[in-house]
Structure formats: C-alpha cells, structure tokens
Design brief:
alpha/beta, Rossmann fold, Helicase, Ruva Protein, domain 3, 5-stranded parallel beta sheet, 47% helix
C-alpha cells in the first residue's frame, strides 16, 4: 500500500506507535503534536489522508477537520477518539470525516480502515481524471454514432445531469448502462464526490445489505470490525445499482426506505445515519411487468423510474456499428502498435449482418481480436471470430440445409429456444430479442417445452 498520511496526536507515544505501524505498511508518514503544526505541514505539502485525534490541547481534531474540509472538501480525514466520546466522532462523520477509530486502537481495525479510506481516495482520483477527460471532449465516451435513439440518450443525459432525481436505465448487457450513469454523475454538481457502482446480481442476498449499508462489529459471524457501506462512502455523490431487478424483495423494502427517508442503518446498528446520494439504477428486465407479477415492488419501481433512459441494442443502431468499429480499430491499432488502414468491405458486411447479443462490449472485443489477427493492412472476414461471420447468410438471414425427411416445427422451435438461451447465459430478457419474442412469450414457450437451465 502506498500513500501519504499526516498523523496529528498530542501523545508522543501514540505518534511513535502509529508511525512505526504505518511506515511498515508502506505509507509515507508525517507525525505532528497538534492542529497548528498540522496546518503548517498542509501548507508545505499535500497528504492523501489525515489521521487525527479528536481531543487535543488547543485546537481540537474537529476544528482542524472543519478548517481543512472548508479549503478542500475532498480531503480524507479519519478521527481517533477515546471511549466515551463516540458521539462526537459520529458528529465528525456527519461533518465530513471518512470514519473514526476508538482508542486504544486495534492494529487490524486501523489497517482495514485505512485500506478502505485509500480505496475511496483512489476512486476520487479516478473520478477527477474522468471528469477532466469529459471536459476535454464534446461527446460522451464510447457513445459514438448518429442513430436517433443514441442522440436522444445524449440529449437526456445533458438535460437531467444537473438534478438529483433518480434515474432508471434500461438496456441489454453491453449497451453501456454504467457509462451513461458515469456520464450523468460527471456532468452533475456531485462530480467532485464519489461514484460507486455495484452489480446487485453479483452479490449474494445475505451480503448485499452489508455491502450497501455497512455493518457493526459482531453483527454477524465474520463481522470482525465495523464496515462502512457504499451509501455512507458515497456521501454527496452517486450510487449506481446495476441489475436492480435481481435485488430480493426484503432488500427492495430497505432501499425504498433509504430513498424516502434519506437515511440508512448499518446491519446490527441502532442509529439511523443521514445520507445524501443520488441513486441511478439499471436493468435488462421489464420491471413494469415484474411489478405486475409481484417480482418487484411497485412503490420502489415508481421511485426509481422518475427519469427513464432506454439504451438501444447495437443491432438496432444501423451504421453506428461501423462508426464504432472504426473507432475501436483506431484505438487498438494505436495501443497494439499495428497500423491498419481499415476494415474491408466484406468484413463490414459481416459486422452489419451479425445480431450482436453482447452489444458494444462484444463489438469492441471482436475488433481488438481483428487487429491482433490481421495479416494485411485491413481486417478481413477471416480475422473475425467464427460465430460472427458464420451467423448470417445471404441477406443476413439464418440458413440451413432442409433435411429430405422433413422437420418437426416443435422440435425446431425448441432447439432454437435452447440455443438462444445458451447464448444469453439463460437470461430470458437477453434471449427474447434474439428470437424476436417478448419476455412474456418466451417465458410461456419455456414452460410449454419444459426447458430449464441445466444443473
């Protein structure tokens, strides 16, 4: 671990112990006996993190923090407090401290807290770089093209970014839902504050509450220390909840309360903690239909769906496929040191005829591979993956040899549905467009044929 820490404590023994521990962990450490000396150090150099005692002779740690944050709101401060003054430390967190530690300090708690703090610091640095990059360009990153549906997406982003209202982004996997969320954040008044993205489908139901809201030490088996959740860490910023449709109903109720009351409670905690975050969520499922079936809370849906942005799948964007392909060609030609002149007309035809179930993310991967595999000045059809240039026949339609004994339509339909589900990793909302069906129709067909995901 690397980073610079300024320790502020009027007890020399405590300063020496902290300096020894943190230096051994790889941090660059400066230790001073009071707030006045800390201010002098801050005038001479920048520090990633300030670790300060709360009660000190002269200026207190609270006063020091307020002065520092008034000049630089992004400065990370961790407060140390003796037992019995925890209420003051909680007050410090409300005023901008990242976290607090109770004395006598436990070494493991100290290290874990600082690790979390530096994760947030790195995220803020990444956000600043992204913000600078966005400020230098007139377009949104990777949202290249002139299809009317994408121009409408860009218009919506520019229109709503200055507000704090909730946004629900619809789109298939790989269409760029997180990019849209980041673009909204980077164009908002919250742009200097953290942006956290979490995939609700990737976290077990038993852990998602702790991940979002944090937990107290000892609140469940394995909770060896207090953990700050994403909502607290993102104070003043934006939380992006991807695959929100996968969230269980119990957690949906708690998220609804957070949106309504603007406060959270850690797992095992007794105190409600106010939070100020903007919530942007995303899904590839039809949540309106899910509410009718009882799979998603109707009241939460309406809270999330104040502003709705729908990202079109790549196969519906026409010539944007070629515009994006050429963009990725230039990107990977430069990064790989392979100066290709372009994409052949035959390869362009293949790209246009393919259905792109993985959308823009898949296209980028295909072009990167094409750059690496090309043996001429152009990407040719044979440089593309087999599944891309073998899917479409003349006029871009599925083709096969008709067997002399004829076919069973039921067997053919069942086989096509199984293949589509396999390609979509058994996600109905992804497979339905491949078959030209609605979610509900495909669900009926799966039940009709008794098709289920293999164990």
């Amino acid at each position: 671990m690397t980073g610079s820490i300024l320790i502020v404590d009027d007890e020399k023994g405590q300063r020496d112990i902290l300096t020894a521990i943190l230096t051994k962990e790889g941090y660059s450490v400066t230790a001073v006996p009071g707030a006045r000396e800390a201010i002098e150090e801050l005038e001479k150099a920048e520090f990633d993190l300030i670790l300060t005692d709360l009660k000190m002779q002269g200026m207190s740690g609270m006063e020091l923090m307020e002065k520092v944050l008034a000049e630089d709101a992004s400065q990370c401060v961790v407060m140390m407090t003796a037992h019995g003054t925890v209420d003051s430390a909680v007050e410090a967190m409300k005023k901008g401290a990242f976290d607090y530690l109770e004395k006598p300090l436990e070494r493991d708690d100290l290290i874990l807290t600082l690790q979390r703090a530096f994760e947030r610091i790195m995220l803020l640095k990444e956000n600043r770089v992204l913000h600078k990059r966005l400020a230098e360009t007139k377009t949104l990153p990777n949202m290249i093209g002139e299809h009317p549906k994408m121009l409408e997406v860009v218009r919506m982003i520019n229109k709503i970014s200055s507000t704090s209202t909730t946004v629900l982004i619809y789109g298939e996997s790989g269409t760029g839902k997180e990019l849209v969320a980041r673009a909204i954040h980077e164009r908002s008044p919250r742009k200097e504050k953290p942006f956290f993205a979490i995939n609700c489908a990737a976290i077990p139901d038993s852990l998602i509450e702790s991940e979002l809201f944090g937990h107290e030490k000892g609140s469940f088996t394995g909770a060896g220390s207090r953990e700050i959740g994403i909502f607290e860490a993102a104070e003043g910023g934006t939380v992006f909840l991807d695959e929100i449709g996968e969230m269980n109903t119990a957690m949906q109720a708690k998220l609804l309360r957070t949106i309504q009351e603007k406060e959270i409670r850690r797992v095992g905690g007794k105190q409600n903690i106010p939070v100020d975050v903007r919530i942007i969520s995303a899904t590839n499922r039809d949540l309106e239909q899910e509410t009718k079936r009882g799979g998603f809370r109707e009241d939460l849906f309406y809270r999330l769906n104040v502003i709705r942005i729908t990202l079109p799948p790549l196969r519906e964007r026409g010539n944007d496929i070629l515009t994006l392909a050429n963009f990725f060609l230039k990107k990977y030609s430069a990064s790989c040191g392979i100066p290709l002149k372009g994409i052949s007309k035959a390869a362009m035809k293949v790209l246009l005829e393919y259905s792109w179930p993985g959308n823009v993310r898949q296209l980028e991967s295909v072009i990167e591979r094409g750059v690496l595999m090309a043996e001429s000045d152009y990407i040719l059809p044979e440089d593309l993956p087999a599944e891309v240039h073998s899917e479409a026949g003349p006029a871009g339609r599925l083709h096969f040899d008709f067997p002399p004994e004829g076919i069973s339509m039921d067997e053919l339909e069942r086989d096509l549905i199984v293949k589509a589900m396999q390609r979509a990793d058994w996600v109905i909302s992804k497979a339905a467009p491949l078959l030209g069906m609605s979610y509900k129709t495909l669900q009926y067909r799966l039940e009709k044929f008794g098709i289920g995901r293999p164990e």
